[in-house]
Amino acid sequence: MTAIEEVRACHAAVWHALGTVRDPELDEPLTDLGFVARCEVDGGRAAVELRLPTYFCAPNFAFLMVADAYDAVSAVPGVRSVEVRLVDHFAAEAINRGVAARAGFVASFAGEAVNELDELRATFVRKAVLAGTDRVCRALMKSGVDGDRLARMTLGEVPASQDRERLRARRRELGLPCGDGDPLLVDPETGEAVPPSDAARHLGFARLTRAGQEANSGVCRDMLRVRYPHIGEQEGAR
Amino acid sequence: MYEKDGEKYFVVDGHTHFWDASPENWVEGQEEYAKGWIECFHAYQGLGPADTHWPIDRFQKYSEELMMHDLFEAGHVDVAIFQPTNLRQWYKNGFNTTEVDAALAEKHPGKFLVNTYFDPREGDAGMKAFEERVKRYGCKGVKLYTAEWLGDSRGWSLKDPEAFRYLEKCEELGVKNIHVHKGPTIWPLDKDAFDMSDVDRASTSFQGLNFIVEHVGLPRIEDFCFMATQERNVYAGLAVVVGGLMHARPKFFAKVMGELMFWLGEDKLIFGADYAIWEPKWQVEGFVDWQMPADEELSDFAPLTVEQKKKILGLNAARLYDIDVPAELRLEAPKVVEPVGVPNP
């Protein structure tokens, strides 16, 4: 490989790594959402800038994304130093400093934050499981499968699809049963199978959760576009 | 009163303000927050129809005449409920205080109900002042802003033992309607508005009080519905839902209305225009004209009946606040339809 090819390959690997980092609430990759403002790789040094839809986006979510991006890029072979900076955000300085120093959220916001963010993250992965359940089940219901039948189905009986694998991955992240022989409908807190008598209610919550998630995603995308009107051109720089 | 197609609607605006966010009222050294706050509100107004947008200077401080016109002359409102928000940390005389609201209400008998607030961080002195306000202004409700700053504190929780003391006092004084702001937030860190567990705990413990969750926890409607289905004394305050979504995000509005009707039902939804963020006129007219769209994605939801709209626009709030509704505006035989999510009483 020539030097230029190596730099290109490394850049592609860093971009791919950023694609594994999700907005914890929207459950979508930062790269798809347009949150990566800059991604440069030079001689093993990766420099990444992240941007968000508003100046006041919740700092706990922002902290998670910056810290996750730092971890993902650090793990790319060939990357020797990493700088991830959040830009245009009221808490950017505290977050950037905290992540670079590998300090936790509480230490980064002394006096203002009480809890670390693991539980926050888990809360939103549980929501992602519910929203993902609606995506999978809605398609099945459209083809005539009723709630009672859904409650007796296994993951493996669902026709293969991206939505099914995404749901499986979120369940794996929470330590919930996610094999082909495991039930399609599980309680996202306990992992217990949902009994047929509760299926309608469970599917209602799944529908509601997805509605909220997709609405928020829409709002964030609209606001980002208003804030950074030239967003399409910048993405060409990847 | 609003009349359309021969149907008459008694309108209660469950969420109104008379505020002063003009620069003369900004606390020295806190101008950034005072300005940022009102500009954030002003941006929300942009979600309404273009011909209802105000310039920022009018929005910062509007007149009594304008408010009376927008609500009662143009806006079809029969009775409006004031929901104060103090924000004294940023605004010298407060942003929208009980006292200012009450002065306006006294000048226009029968038009307004005055709610007040409590803040458990104000301790015993606050408790005494709270009781005095309730007695003086005949308050039947409070508006709680758990994210309000006070000194070094960035907010409080309804779970706090001190908050429970105040809720006991509410029961004692007959202040039975507890409006809690659980909606869009910008600050503060950990106390992000998605956490509604404090309302959950308080509503379970105080069965004699009604908890009206303002803005239904948007942008996290699911948290609200999850919680509300477990509690029979939790209501949905539709301020921001109608004003912020009906015009700007009609599809999401349909989903939210569908979900609220599905989980809470027609007796638990309370209209509020959130004046002066939005004027009631276009909201009342738009809501009466609105119907669940015929759309595959919305096929789980039933269309709204005229009777249901009458309840949501005014009769439900009238019931909670014991407002006398003229005979010709009542429902002939109020039906109770048990929603899916709420347990039987």
TrEMBL record, chain A:
Annotated ranges, domain MIP18 family-like: 12-84
Entry-linked Pfam families: FeS_assembly_P (PF01883)
Entry-linked Gene3D superfamilies: Fe-S cluster assembly (FSCA) (3.30.300.130)
UniProt-listed InterPro entries: FSCA_dom_sf, MIP18-like
Domain of life, source organism: Bacteria
Entries under SUPFAM superfamilies matching the protein: Fe-S cluster assembly (FSCA) domain-like (SSF117916)
Name the record gives this protein: Metal-sulfur cluster biosynthetic enzyme
Organism: Amycolatopsis thermoflava
Lineage: Bacteria, Bacillati, Actinomycetota, Actinomycetes, Pseudonocardiales
From TrEMBL, chain B:
Domain of life from the UniProt record: Bacteria
Entry GO MF terms: hydrolase activity
Xref: InterPro entries: Amidohydro-rel (IPR006680), Metal_Hydrolase (IPR032466)
Gene3D superfamilies from the UniProt entry: Metal-dependent hydrolases
Pfam family, one: Amidohydro_2
Amidohydrolase-related domain ranges (all copies): 12-323
Record's protein name: Amidohydrolase-related domain-containing protein
